[in-house]
Amino acid sequence: MFDQHGDTLTRAMKAIAERGYWSAYPESPSPRVYGEGAAERGKEAFESYLGKPFPIEQQGTGLWIGAERSPYGMELGVTYPEPSPEQLVDLAGAAMPAWRDAGPQERAQVCAEILHRINQRSFEIANAVQHTTGQAFVMAFQAGGPHAQDRGLEAVAYGLAAMTAARSHARWEKPAKGDPLVMEKTFTVVPRGVALVIGCNTFPTWNAYPGLFASLVTGNPVIVKPHPGAILPLAITVAIAREVLEEAGFDPDLVTLAAEEGQGLASQLATHPDVRIVDFTGSTEYGDWLERNATQALVHTEKAGVNTVVVDSTDSYKGMLGNIAFSLSLYSGQMCTAPQNILIPSDGIQTDAGPKSLAEVAADLAAAVSRLLGDDARAVELTGAIVNAGVLGRVEAAPSLGEVVLESRAVTHPAFPGATVRTPVIVKLSQADEETYGREHFGPVAFVIATGSTEESLAVLRRTISSRGALTASVYSTSPQVLEAAERAALDAGVNLSCNLTGGVFVNQSAAFSDYHGTGANPAATASLTDPGFVAGRFFVVQSRRHA
Amino acid sequence: MFDQHGDTLTRAMKAIAERGYWSAYPESPSPRVYGEGAAERGKEAFESYLGKPFPIEQQGTGLWIGAERSPYGMELGVTYPEPSPEQLVDLAGAAMPAWRDAGPQERAQVCAEILHRINQRSFEIANAVQHTTGQAFVMAFQAGGPHAQDRGLEAVAYGLAAMTAARSHARWEKPAKGDPLVMEKTFTVVPRGVALVIGCNTFPTWNAYPGLFASLVTGNPVIVKPHPGAILPLAITVAIAREVLEEAGFDPDLVTLAAEEGQGLASQLATHPDVRIVDFTGSTEYGDWLERNATQALVHTEKAGVNTVVVDSTDSYKGMLGNIAFSLSLYSGQMCTAPQNILIPSDGIQTDAGPKSLAEVAADLAAAVSRLLGDDARAVELTGAIVNAGVLGRVEAAPSLGEVVLESRAVTHPAFPGATVRTPVIVKLSQADEETYGREHFGPVAFVIATGSTEESLAVLRRTISSRGALTASVYSTSPQVLEAAERAALDAGVNLSCNLTGGVFVNQSAAFSDYHGTGANPAATASLTDPGFVAGRFFVVQSRRHA
């Protein structure tokens, strides 16, 4: 039925080994790519959900719940079936054997078909992502659509590669006195058990698809528990998955939606004795709780961290400022990969525009951000809206943390007057303020931190990232020695490093099939999205042997 | 320095994918294989350790400890440096960066050289295994020597395969308006952190080598904490590893010995915040404790289980009885893979020797064991000695559990009059006695269990193994339908199955590079020894990228 995805899967498996550029789903929202009217149809599909029960046939308590509100100002009014956790786990378990028996190749084909249909509905999902996360539309389309789909396919490819690395049949022939001992052996992939994906508020699809597809392709049913503020993008995803599974002859309850308004459903499900896999993206506090309490499960978490920029010197001062300003502004710093701590020697840096004092670098960075976000209509297409009250509170509290280099600005959205839009605040700290910069201030809050030297900057990076984690680090230097020292510091701290980004690549962006997102080697995450370690443990091999 | 192991590693990596027969280290203790005088020199080397401090230069508290006693009757009197846990962890951490920087290939070469030198000292280690575990000499040589070495090499191969599955350098070239975006990316393997291997009493080398070499090859320093009753085989192993590491220019503290007399050193080390990997073989109780409490670490455990034989019918009645009798007798059932629960329909079975009632099968099995172990001198070469008082206590308690089909017999060892030798006890139970047969009675204790039918036998297998775990299961049937049903039951229970073993292959034996030991899919173990899931999470990949 879905044989047309064979080439895609083969190509994806090649890509995960080569780690060069490759993408299965076009990131351009152009009508030349997705067809005339696709954008309009997607918007209509999104609007058709508003104020109504979401069209999904799934067992539950009979109640319909949901309290999503767009960061752009309006209530969504979509409701979802309230689930019974026990029932969801039972339904998932009952659906598992037939899915196991389908085998790795068929499961991968079905997963590829699910992703293909998700891709066809990228505009619809983009609107849902925009109005649950506050992302600007283009970002919601790219990160919530094709980029998330690529990460999902990447997880399928890793799963398929892992499941097929060894043969499924072998003939064992051991030399012996007289006749050799000969046995026929069969090796069957079996799933670990019911999987739970706990979604986040800011990237509901991008952060959920790797866990969802890694578990599904390896034979596990998946319960998808979205953040109460970002249900719709995953509800659409789940509905598509159920539709494809049913068409392929499987039980749609292999993928179910566990919507809630915030009653602690995640903890109930994550500690259920029959839930054997948990994937979570969110706060360090809750991630740590899961790691300590869901000990019956394989737990993968992506948590907070202190993303760091080390500024030593540059041969492209303007390029550096523009690049950092963009990284701070994109989605108002509400990316788990956005830089927070910008470490600069207190006696300034050498640049192609001459030596610059720390005060000058800070002021020039502030000016670069102001310039980038000077025009309200263009600014909101970069910043989007503030996702929730927690982020807003941190932006408002930031001036009390130190000397304000750049004030946050409230911007009125030309199209959505109810949107909460804030530009980044930059606060100057000294190296001694580790209590402040040593923890994450998620949102548009950045620190310029005066250090004794670049060597001390690298010591701060090593120390803070080893203890608090980070998803990204970057360094600017014209010195090969400093770049090498930065690479060693990044290896010690276990963080991915970008060097001298001054053009169209930003530290907050990671490309599926080439860049690893997170490492597992620091407290911000337990594994990369996605790598062999991310799929391992989601399945086992059971053998049967008999004399030939 | 160790380039000669390149071919061995290449061959091993081929073997783990093909899963046919392959072995790197010959299992025959013949002088034609290991050389004239090798056996004698090994025995002398072993005897040279007795009653003295073990020759290892390692920091510690200054005290020398050790209280090993041979199950064959004598005190060993070997002492080892008493370690300070904090110091061991610090030494390990300090040794790590240079080992990381050596990279996967060099680490694999060093590991292969360690294994090569261990292999050269197989006779010495065999004597040490014999006199700490109670295994008979040939088994101590094979399972404690070449078979353990093969499992170690298998772990090295899985580690190397996992670390090199993706390229370490890539050029990323993304089409863009104007010039493409081009980046050079470097991917570096970094270790998870300090590893701990907790050894067991019965198979100190075989069960420790997979974790030891999986952690070491992936860049982690390893602290080896032997069982207080079986230190010597691992002390020799650690000394060899340290010698090779030092010759190769690395810090010998990458592998250290943590000897104890039973003061709870394992718990201290396993919950140390800087210990990031724990491999354990032993009791379910302590394994479960580790899984719940060492949450800062990746924990792999191999625990107890209820290994099961389903007897439905056979076309080789004599072969079946002989095969099961051998499996029960080998090392007095003190193998984690030895069968315990033999499920037989209460109305008997069909065989090539005519129909047999349950009572007949039980009596014939008892007779087969008695015949196999009738001659004391030959019996002890199969049973070895009882490893410790716990096992002896269970043998002595077994008759109270049900109707005794075969009494255990105390055998006087012709060469070691102080040895505690016991033949298996077989007790008949009914299907209703699940309280008794539903838990492990580690040692030479087997149950013949009357079930309502083979279908009910398979239901018992499914239920007991799903809830209590098992490392092995086997089935005897002439019916393809029953064999298929048994295979499905084994998949559901997540246990490796052997079908109709009537010749020279026994259910308790698993061959490295072909058979998986354990699955991870039932409570007896968290992963197979060894497979990709066993090495995953022991290392991470950290990337660095810059514009080309």
From TrEMBL, chains A, B:
Cited Pfam families: Aldedh (PF00171)
Protein name (database record): Phenylacetic acid degradation protein PaaN
Keywords: NAD, Oxidoreductase
Transmembrane portions of the chain: none
Gene name of the encoded protein: paaN
Residue ranges constituting the Aldehyde dehydrogenase domain according to the UniProt record: 86-494
Source organism, top-level taxon: Bacteria
InterPro entries (UniProt xref): Ald_DH/histidinol_DH, Ald_DH_C, Ald_DH_N, Aldehyde_DH_dom, PaaN_2, Proline_metab_enzyme
